[in-house]
Amino acid sequence: xxxxxxxxxxxxxxxxxxxxxxxxxxxxxxxxxxxxxxxxxxxxxxxxxxxxxxxxxxxxxxxxxxxxxxxxxxxxxx
Length: 78
Description:
Elements: E1 4-10, H1 13-25, E2 51-56, H2 60-69
Antiparallel strand pairs: 1-2
């Protein structure tokens, strides 16, 4: 079983959704564990670390290359 790691963080939910959609179109599956946050009572402190995408550790280099080629920059300051 592959370990899941944080492969990218984004400052907004739409950015994370776009990145996840792009990765899926390239055949790379990711998870966004914070996706349903807006369904609950939203506490902004929950998102202090940004919107996370999780992926398999062995896919990290491929994910990084796909996002870089698409000029999608994960947040560096989060």
